[in-house]
Amino acid sequence: MLYKTRGLVLNTINYNDKYILARIFTESFGRVTYMVSKAKGKGAKAPKSLFSPLAILDLEVEHQTSRDIQRIREARPDVYLYDIAGNMGKTSMAFFLSEFLSRVLKDADDSKLLFEYLNQSVRILEMTDKSIANYHLVFMLKLTHFMGFYPNLEEYKENSLFDMINGEFVLYQPLHNHYLNRYDSKALSLLARISYENMHHFVFSRQDRITIINRILEYYRLHLHDFPALKSLDVLHELF
């Protein structure tokens, strides 16, 4: 049966000489793996060139729950990401976030609200002419709302420690080893006020930003099963 849905491209891998596999987070079905033809030319209804990281597509797809791999009948851009494609910083951000989302969205089923968050976030990345040095911090932090483990960053008090297991600031050292020291906890507390609208006003040193990113990723790793290191992170550290 054919369905129409929007989808956000996570990544693609070669399948054989004729096809690639595209992992796409869809509005209707959550994360799905689709087989896409490598055929080129005007007759191609789902050209391979459309499937770049974070591309948002209008799709006509076959969907059968008994299949692990589905088929795309037709694909076209829902929005054109010219600046993400042409701006090195935004391109690198897109590659990092696509790898990050590929690891995070394995079992996300409640897809409509989550898809709309991803859709709006990508559009903001495309349109903004302000600094994006903190964009991924906002993106990763707000995504935890949809993953079910949003940290309580509002209750910070001087000299608090951030408990990574329970997602909250505490005044005394937890009985486990997964907590941040006082300096890192204070830096993390600043993120309670950060948003896409004001992210360019927050100034972190390069080392502090690296520390915050690594701590957020550690937080994800503690709350998700099988969350490996991200290969594209080093490139992002170099740029921002």
General description of the model:
This protein has helices at residues 82-86, 88-104, 111-127, 135-147, 182-189, 206-223, 233-239, and strands at 2-14, 19-26, 30-37, 56-62, 69-77, 161-163, 168-170. By secondary structure, the chain is of the alpha+beta class. Strands 1-2-3-5-4 form a five-stranded mixed β-barrel. A two-stranded antiparallel ribbon has the order 6-7. β4 and β5 form a beta hairpin. α2 (88-104) packs antiparallel against α7 and α4 (135-147) runs parallel beside α6.
Characterize this entry briefly.
The chain has about 240 residues and is α+β, with helices and mostly antiparallel strands.
Average residue pLDDT: 91
CATH architecture identity of the largest domain: Up-down Bundle
Gyration radius from CA atoms, angstroms: 19 Å
Reading off the top of the CATH hierarchy, the class of the largest domain is best stated as Mainly Alpha
- Helical segment tally? 7
> Could you tell me the strand content as a percent range?
15-25%
CATH topology of the largest domain: de novo design (two linked rop proteins)
Strand order of the largest sheet: 1-2-3-5-4
What attributes characterize this protein structure?
single chain; 240 residues; alpha+beta; OB fold (Dihydrolipoamide Acetyltransferase, E2P); de novo design (two linked rop proteins); five-stranded mixed β-barrel; two-stranded antiparallel sheet; 21% strand; elongated
